[in-house]
Automatic annotation (TrEMBL):
<dbReference type="InterPro" id="IPR005225">
    <property type="entry name" value="Small_GTP-bd"/>
</dbReference>
<comment type="subunit">
    <text>Associates with the 50S ribosomal subunit.</text>
</comment>
<dbReference type="Pfam" id="PF01926">
    <property type="entry name" value="MMR_HSR1"/>
</dbReference>
<dbReference type="InterPro" id="IPR015946">
    <property type="entry name" value="KH_dom-like_a/b"/>
</dbReference>
<feature type="domain" description="EngA-type G">
    <location>
        <begin position="4"/>
        <end position="169"/>
    </location>
</feature>
<keyword id="KW-0690">Ribosome biogenesis</keyword>
<feature type="binding site">
    <location>
        <begin position="230"/>
        <end position="234"/>
    </location>
    <ligand>
        <name>GTP 2</name>
    </ligand>
</feature>
<dbReference type="GO" id="GO:0042254">
    <property type="term" value="P:ribosome biogenesis"/>
</dbReference>
<dbReference type="InterPro" id="IPR031166">
    <property type="entry name" value="G_ENGA"/>
</dbReference>
<comment type="function">
    <text>GTPase that plays an essential role in the late steps of ribosome biogenesis.</text>
</comment>
<dbReference type="GO" id="GO:0005525">
    <property type="term" value="F:GTP binding"/>
</dbReference>
<dbReference type="InterPro" id="IPR032859">
    <property type="entry name" value="KH_dom-like"/>
</dbReference>
<keyword id="KW-0342">GTP-binding</keyword>
<feature type="binding site">
    <location>
        <begin position="295"/>
        <end position="298"/>
    </location>
    <ligand>
        <name>GTP 2</name>
    </ligand>
</feature>
<feature type="binding site">
    <location>
        <begin position="183"/>
        <end position="190"/>
    </location>
    <ligand>
        <name>GTP 2</name>
    </ligand>
</feature>
<dbReference type="Pfam" id="PF14714">
    <property type="entry name" value="KH_dom-like"/>
</dbReference>
<comment type="similarity">
    <text>Belongs to the TRAFAC class TrmE-Era-EngA-EngB-Septin-like GTPase superfamily. EngA (Der) GTPase family.</text>
</comment>
Length: 452
């Protein structure tokens, strides 16, 4: 990552994620009154005075407990500190210094990195000075009283922080391909992210629901920048209670919306479920390009016909997603994972592809020659005058007709199929907009230059 990094560390439930959201002027980090919500390290961009930097949120540090995810959370926090230029140690001003704070402070003093001590939950400026004074005993320098909720004191904290960060460099902007990795819980999304990036970026566990935040990771290959976004596993709505999982799933849906390409990860052992189909529909509704990843292929018992049987199964269950490329991979062993970025390149290219009006109308003329539009019971036949592509991401084609109501679903699917066969658009949905004559007449009165 090109920007300097600032690690936010501390014990559980002291308000680290709230501070990250305050510094980044966002609501991307999950904030919930429950210890252990944040597990992986997540990055957000921040700015103060003349400095751009990244703040990395980390899970709560506990050194004397190795249950559940705590060892992995420690590894993620240590990794964040190692790649940072500075750190902010967050403590709870209302609780006062605790043995856990003292243990973290002792560990921090052994690190060769500038650390600022932020005493959070100091909502009253007068009382905050008294609360902060208790933390001089941690021997980490001046404690800064702040309120992550209200923003009190964060300006003074940032004024000191930027003194430890390098000045902004002239970094040429490079376009990024945003890739959301989505799927049901425990299908191998985090393992796939780690395998693609070549590092333990996300915590991997057989426990369902390990990933909660949407985790961004940048990868560069052949001069292209990819931003991979690991997301929480998405279960059926009726099974999700309000809390960490609810917030994680909302962030997964937001990740789909801001992605260029979505990797829909399927457990090859379980096969395609109804929930997988609902996720595929969500991708289509958002107009995102997609690649279907059949993961855990190493765990499937195979013979010479297995892959063909699976391909048939995928086509049957994802008949509405037939345009998406399918990869059979093993994120655990790395088999065929290298093909993923190639498939992403193809899908992203088609997602922003533009076709000339002349070519579109050639396809239309041939389609009309093979199959004329249907006629109503009164003998009135539909007419397609011409078509033109009006948008990309996804490719959107407007068809100007005499009356959209005269074109039934079967004929609309026929036209869609003709465009696919002639123009490809592998990896991306295409949208057809049927515009009637009356609309065109209204447009012409508003803008005389509108084409007839």
């Amino acid at each position: 990552m090109s920007l300097p990094i600032v690690a936010i560390i501390g014990r559980p439930n002291v308000g680290k994620s709230m501070l990250v959201n305050r510094l980044a002027s966002s609501q991307n980090a999950i904030v919930h009154d429950e210890p252990g919500i944040t597990r992986d390290r997540t990055y957000q961009q921040a700015f103060w005075r003349d400095r751009d930097f990244l703040v990395v949120d980390t899970g709560g540090l506990i050194f004397d407990d190795d249950t559940e995810f705590l060892p992995s959370i420690r590894e993620q926090a240590i990794a964040a500190l190692q790649e940072s230029q500075a750190a902010i140690f967050v403590v709870d001003g209302q609780a006062g210094p605790t043995p856990a704070d003292e243990e973290i402070a002792q560990w921090i003093r052994q690190q060769s990195i500038p650390v600022l001590l932020a005493v959070n939950k100091c909502e009253s400026p007068e009382q905050g000075i008294i609360q902060a004074a208790q933390f001089w005993e941690l021997n980490l320098g001046e404690p800064y009283p702040i309120s992550s909720i209200h923003g009190n004191g964060t300006g003074e904290l940032l004024d000191e922080l930027v003194n430890h960060l390098p000045p902004n460099a002239e970094i040429p902007e490079q376009p990024e391909i945003n890739i959301a990795i989505v799927g049901r819980p425990n299908v191998g999304k985090s393992t796939l992210l780690n395998t693609i990036t070549g590092e333990s970026r996300a915590i991997v566990s057989p426990v369902s629901g390990t990933t909660r935040d949407a985790i961004d990771m940048r990868v560069e290959r052949n001069g292209k920048i990819y931003r991979l976004i690991d997301t929480a596993g998405i279960r059926k709505k009726k099974n999700v209670e309000y809390g960490a999982e609810f917030f994680g799933i909302n962030r997964a849906f937001k990740a789909i919306k801001r992605a260029d390409v979505v990797l829909l990860v399927i457990d090859a052992v379980d096969g395609i479920t109804e929930q997988d189909q609902k996720l595929a529909n969500r991708i289509i509704e958002e107009g995102r390009a997609a690649v279907i990843i059949m993961n855990k292929w190493d765990a499937v018992e195979k013979d010479a016909y297995t892959i063909y049987e699976y391909e048939t199964h995928v086509k049957d269950r994802f008949y509405f997603l037939e345009w998406a490329e399918v990869l059979f991979v093993s994120a655990l062993t790395g088999k065929r994972v290298e093909k993923t970025l190639d498939a992403i390149d193809r899908a992203a290219g088609e997602h922003q592809r533009r076709v000339s009006t002349a070519v579109i109308n050639e396809v239309l003329q041939e389609a009309l020659a093979w199959h004329s539009p249907p006629a109503t019971r009164q003998g009135k036949q539909g007419k397609i005058y011409y078509g033109t592509q009006v948008r990309i991401q996804p490719p959107t084609i407007t068809l100007f007709v005499n009356d959209p109501k005269r074109f039934n679903d079967n004929y609309r699917r026929y036209i869609d199929r003709q465009f696919r066969e002639a123009l490809g658009f592998t990896g991306t949905p295409i949208r057809l907009l049927w515009r009637g004559k009356r609309v065109r007449e209204v447009e012409r009165t508003i803008n005389p230059a509108t084409r007839v």
